[in-house]
Design brief:
Elements (H helix, E strand, L loop, with lengths): L4 E6 L3 H11 L4 E7 L3 E4 L15 E2 L2 H8 L5 E6 L10 H6 L3 E3 L4 H4 L2 H10 L15 E2 L11 H9 L4 E7 L2 H10 L8 H10 L8 H4 L2 H14 L9 E3 L13 H7 L4 H12 L3 E10 L5 E9 L11 E8 L6 E6 L3 H20 L3
Parallel strand pairs: 1-2, 1-5, 5-6, 6-7, 9-11
Antiparallel strand pairs: 2-3, 3-4, 8-10, 8-12, 10-11, 12-13
Length: about 350
Amino acid sequence: MPSTTYVALLGPGLVGRAVLAQLSALPQFRVVAVANSSRMVLSSSSVTADALKTDAAVPLAYGSLADHVSSYPGASAIIDCTASDAPAHWYAAWLARGISVVTPNKKAFAGDAARYAAIRGSARAPTGLSTRKDAGLLFHESTVGAGLPLLCTIKDLVATGDAIESVEGVLSGTLSYLFNEYCAPGNKAGFAAIVETAKSLGYTEPDPRDDLNGLDVARKVVILARAAGLASLTLDDVEVENIVPATLRDVPSADAFLKELPKFDAEFAARKAAAAAKGAVLRYVGRVELATGKATVKVAEAGAGHPLAGLGGADNMVVIKTKRFPRGLVIQGAGAGDAVTAFGVVADALRVHHTHAFEP
């Protein structure tokens, strides 16, 4: 029974540092490696992100990092907090040699279907498809909804024999805020002004078009769909409404985009008015229907009786309709933020530790 789980952390950015801070309060973990995109530090004692600034840092080598973290007499896990595709190419190999993988990185789970299948095939059941007891475990709860219990709920529904009919929701804190504010009673501001306010508050990407194009939401829809059973669904299968006006998609800078966006306020206002005339509000919704495999990401009207109509702030909300929950199982809460994302990652790391701790 291992008393310690040994961890290598990739990507000590905002989320990665929050993960390290939370792990430091848990005595069952020892972080023995930290790496950024080019350097790594390997240690026999606990290591922090600051060590990357010292002479102890050496060029990053994923093979050597895996050798190091798996050399200890206990469970081992690599926590990938990067936004890079590079570590995902190693997941299957790490899992096959018994190293568990925990990550909020969407790349592997919304990307190439063949690579996704290889990763699942290398991970030990029930987190993957391998029957090998010495294979690593795979957890990626925080790839959708930060710390919200979305993927684990979907997987539990499937595992217990329920039939999922659809999964839909507001999956972006940025787009949640934009449409919640824009459609709030009494709001007089145009859509462009709401976007500019959101950017000033730090709610958007440095270039808001990276939020408004819908691709991040589409990736989350693919992840949810695959968890629900549509393992072959790809990003190309998702019908995405890009709400960046076509003529502004190639303007050279975020500032130039924001300067021109007010010219399109009338178009957004017309859609808002059409929804209001039906007693509805606008929401940016990702949806997948399991029977047909149809997946969409678009601006949708939510009537007064729909759970999405009651959203406020920058919350995420997902509605899962199943045979057992025909009216929908609703999960809502903060879907972004360093601390809540780190919570989801660390909770997954604890699942790795507990699984090994209770094995004979």
